[in-house]
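Run log, item B.
One chain of 280 residues. Sequence copied directly from the ordering sheet:
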Amino acid sequence: MHIQITKADGSTEFFKVEKLRRSLRRAGANPEEISEIIGKIDDHLYDGIQTQEIYRQAFALLRNSRPPAAARYSLRRALFNLGPTGFPFEKFLARLFEMDGYTTKTGIIMQGNCAPHEIDIAAYKSDHSFIGEAKFHSRPGVKSDLQVAMYSYARLLDLKNAKICEDDVCGVNEFWLITNTKFTSTAENYGNCVGLKMLSWDFPRNNNLHDRIQKAGVYPVSVLQSINTAQMEALIARGIILCRDIVTHPQVLKHLHLPKRKYETLIAEVEEICKVKINK
């Protein structure tokens, strides 16, 4: 039976069970859990069902069996929860690129040939450097379009003679346009044509934002199921962007004033997600 599902942007496509299977596998669910979840989801599919509903059902089932796996499965939603401003998303991207050996800066002003520019992220290491625009969206159906890509390319042209740092490698040779959602096909085609580096949840096909996060094993604190939104925001306000920040700075949790049982649950969740033992 072919089931038509409705995506976040309103478009439709046939349900592909392998996409669901792959996302559950990436989250760390074992084969038995995957088969059980897919079986239960299959029983509730109907024409026109929204992808958000499929996600909600899968997440609920996974959370009941393996909370840390559910946290990894909820990664895309966790990025939305880094809002409502884009500032925490910029910080998260900086930490992600630091895992690749870059020194990073966020929220800086650079003078171009014709105008000053506020740069969301700048990164450099011994053999490479780039600046970038972080387009944060709080809803999955919103895409970064051609206008955004053209604006980014114009900024690259104006900043050609600028430098991120004093080293020879720090010239502005690349501009990265990064979003937590998706690009329109027109924006992707334009970016490829003019030489923009573009990174979204699923673009390019390989080494996209999702792939990079999974490979680096860096998960924002917004994936944690043991804290609420206010507690998450309190951690971010103190510079705790990643789950692994709690590993290195567990004392920050005292600011959450958690009861002992909730504290132990949170510690266990972080240890499982990061695959380490926390020295409390």
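Observations after the first pass:
- The two ends are 52 Å apart (CA to CA).
- The chain has a mean pLDDT of 90.
Flagged for discussion on Thursday.
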